[in-house]
Amino acid sequence: NIIHSQGLRADWHNSKLDSHYSRVSTQRNDPFVDYRMLYGRLSGSLLANLHVKSLKLIPNVFTCSRTLSETNLKYNLCTNYIRNGIEYDPINSAPSLNEKITQRELLDLPTDSKLFVWVGPFIDRKSPQTTIRAFLNIQNTCNYYVCLLGNGPLYKECRALAGHSSKIIFRGNVANVPDYLQSADGFISSSVSEGMPNSVLESLAYSTPVILSDISAHQEILALSKYAGRTYKTGDVQQLIEAIETLDTSELAASAARKLIETSLNAQVMSKSYQDFYQTLVGMKQ
After folding, report:
1. What is the pLDDT of residue 141?
2. What is the pLDDT of residue 286?
3. How many CB atoms lie within 10 A of CB 196?
4. Alpha-carbon distance 201 to 88, whole Å?
5. Nearest 5°: CA angle at 50, between 25 and 61?
6. Contact 225, 259 (CB under 8 A)
7. Cβ neighbours of residue 144 closer than 8 Å, sequence gap 6 or more
8. Where are the beta strands (DSSP E) in the chain?
9. Neighbours of 275 (CB within 10 A)
10. What is the pLDDT of residue 94?
């Protein structure tokens, strides 16, 4: 009854179908930013134009954030939004200090310091270099460490940038990301573009306050709860250092992070919104 696509290839096929079908798409990125970074300016622009053209031919397009829907207006693309949401364990609670220390021991991470986690592919859009430079330049006498999880084209460059600094820990791709999130005092995203980032939502679900670059998608998240974290000017290493040194990691902040997922940015809320819209489409066809 309904065909729902997401992504360039699927959306292109969806755009070619006739009006007999109820057609829906979910858009999860800004093609003109992401594709240019991923494929280069020329190829990326061609693919972005193709994707936007395809989306314009699909009657019902939802973005994963309000921010992305507003961005689409400059491409003359009218969309609605249903915020992305994640699965979470309702009975999971914020770990105690002792539980964090035990988890760090199991992961072979520093136990007597402030620990931050960065998660994602090592690509330009995620800007891991900004996070690394911040920890290379922290002058505070307190111990601050960051553990970076993931891999990608910039991985070797980032390892070289970090040099022999003991404050910057690389673990590559791991299967147990939640264990790292639960052991951390804070989560950092230095991205220059996002739709509605799952890694940020997952860290909030594990009661981990966040430090986010001040791109619109990140601001949209923290607008729902000002106690769950803070932002810094995108690409500004000094502002990131200040955010690292002043992040509220209290029980209040941890609780606010978790509550943001429980009330707004979870898979149940997202799914119900799509189900309601599906019911509307089916009703229109009857």
Report:
1. 58
2. 60
3. 26
4. 10
5. 20
6. yes
7. 113, 114, 116, 135, 138, 167, 244, 245
8. 2-5, 22-27, 60-63, 80-81, 114-119, 144-149, 168-172, 186-189, 210-213, 229-232
9. 10
10. 77
Alpha-carbon separation of residue 265 from 22, 207, 260 (angstroms): 27, 13, 7
Return the residue matching tokens 């990691």: 249
Two tokens, residue 58: 């699909």
CA distances to 115, 125, 131, 136, 167 from 112, rounded to whole Å, are 9, 32, 21, 19, 12
What's the whole-model pTM score? 0.90
End-to-end CA distance of the chain: 11
Give the Cα separation of 275 and 286 in Å (integer): 17
**Residue ranges in the chain modelled with pLDDT below 70:** 91-92, 140-142, 285-286
What are the strands, taking DSSP E only, across 155-244? 168-172, 186-189, 210-213, 229-232
**The dihedral of CA 8, 18, 67, 76: what is its sign?**
positive
Type of residue found at 47:
L
* Closest CA relative to residue 267, chosen from 206, 205, 182, 195: 205
Q: How high is the pLDDT of residue 140?
A: 67
Tokens 């292109």, located at residue: 12
- What is the rounded CA–CA span in Å between residue 146 and residue 275? 40
Could you tell me the two tokens for 143? 């111990």
pLDDT digits (tens, 9 = 90+) for 173-228: 999 999 999 999 999 999 999 999 999 999 999 999 999 999 999 999 999 998 99
> Which residue type is seen at 32?
F
Sheet holding 168-172, edge to edge: 168-172, 144-149, 114-119, 186-189, 210-213, 229-232
